[in-house]
Amino acid sequence: MSKTVMILATDGFEQSELLKPKQALEDAGFRTEVVSLEAGEIKGWDEDDWGERVPVDRTLADVDADDYAALLLPGGQINPDTLRAEKRAVDLVRAFAEAGKPVAAICHAPWLLIEAGLVRGRTVTGYPSIRTDLANAGANVVDQEVATDGNLITSRNPGDIPAFSRALIAML
Fold first, then answer.
1. pTM of the predicted model, to two decimals?
2. Considering 5, 105, 107, 130, which one is annotated as catalytic?
3. Residue tagged active-site, from 20, 84, 101, 108
4. CATH number where 152 lies
5. Which pLDDT tens digits describe the chain residue by residue (172 residues)?
6. Residue numbers of the domain that contains 30
7. Which of 35, 73, 132, 148 is positioned for an S-S bond with 105, CB 3.0–4.6 A?
8. Is-catalytic flag, 70?
């Protein structure tokens, strides 16, 4: 049985940041499961308007970090901002990190890493508008397409998706 990667997202995820890494993982032989706050579908954000709908495989209430090999956190502004206000989502992100499993966050998704208390003393990157948030949380912030520090993988934007996906696949 292949390793399964959880993709934690909700409405407003940056479409390319969920779909492209998901496809890269599946092409590399990994399973993926989209986990969200509620059953049904979640709606992506595609650059400047609502995008595609993606089916939810499992809800946040029905998952445990122990059942997955890694966690993928797509960005967008709406998605990680909503998730960081959900205690169960933040606790789940922390559980992956504390178990030493890969946690990959792109664009605005490092907001979840901040909320989970995971960036102090770590080298990370993110979308330019959240870099001050990362620095204020004690991170060493860099401006590069992918930053890997221990089990944390971070990237800045959709243009970084190929390097981001390769880094996660290599860690798995």
1. 0.98
2. 107
3. 108
4. 3.40.50.880
5. 589 999 999 999 999 999 999 999 999 999 999 999 999 999 999 989 999 999 999 999 999 999 999 999 999 999 999 999 999 999 999 999 999 999 999 999 999 999 999 999 999 999 999 999 999 999 999 999 999 999 999 999 999 999 999 999 999 9
6. 4-171
7. 73
8. no
